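thread from #wetlab-drylab

HS: before we spend reagent money on co-crystallization trials with adenosine-5'-diphosphate, can we at least see a predicted complex? here's what I'd submit
DV: go for it
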Amino acid sequence: MRARTFERVAKSLIELENLNKSYSGGGGSLHVLHDVNLRIDEGELVSIMGSSGSGKSTLLNILGILDGYDSGRYTLDGTLIQDLSERRAALFRNRFIGFVFQSFNLLPFKTALENVALPLYYQGVARRQRQRLAAEYLERVGLADRAEHLPGELSGGQKQRVAVARALITKPRLVLADEPTGALDSQTSYQLMDLLEQINAEGITIVIVTHEADIAARTRRKIELRDGQVVAQ
Ligand code: ADP
Ligand code: MG
C-alpha cells in the first residue's frame, strides 16, 4: 500500500523574493536588506528578531507599504506590491493592515475613544457608528472604563491597548507591530502578548518585531535577521 502524506494546506499571505533595500544619503549608500526571502502564511503569529540596526523596522515598513524597496518582489495576498501610487498604497493599508508601534503614536489631545475611532473617520464612517465601534473595541482590550481619558492619563500598558484597539477597528487581516513591548515592563509586556495571542486566535495574522528573546518565545515562529539577511526562519 502506498503511504499517504497529509500536508497542512496553508495560504501564503506575505511572500518576499530576493528583496533588497538600500538607503542613500550623505554621499554614500547603506545596503540594509540583502536578498531577503520570506513567506508568512495567513493566520501565523511570527516574530522578527535581530539586534538594533539589523533592518527589522525597515523590513516591517516595507511589509506595511510605508516604504518601498529597490529590487526583488513583495507579494501581499497575491498582489505584487510595487510602485503603488500613494493613494493605492493608502487604500491597501487602510483596508488590510493594522499597525502598532513602540511609542504608541496616540494623539495626545484626543480621548482613548477618539483615538480608537480615528481610522474610521478616514474611511468616512458616520460619527455615531465610529463611536459605537470604538467603544466595542475598547471593551475588547479591557479599557471600557478609560474611554474618556486622554493618553497622558493612561499607563504605558493601557496606551498600548488603546493602540491595539485602534489597529483592529478596521478589521485588518494583518497586524504589524514594531517593538510593541519596547516601552513596557515585563509583566505588562506579557499581558500585551496575551492580548495579541487572543487576536491571532481569531484568525488575524500578526508579525511582531522585537529584540527581546522572551517576547519572541511567545510567538509560534521566529525569523532572525542578521545584518539585513534572514539567517533562520
Ligand atoms: P532595526 O529596526 O533592526 O534597529 P532599522 O531597520 O531601523 O533597524 O535600520 C537598519 C539600518 O538602516 C540602520 O543602520 C539605520 O541607521 C539605517 N536606516 C534606517 N532608516 C534609515 C533612513 N530613513 N535613512 C538612512 N538610513 C536609515
Ligand atoms: Mg527598529
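DV: The chain has seven helices and ten strands.
HS: ok that's useful, forwarding to the group
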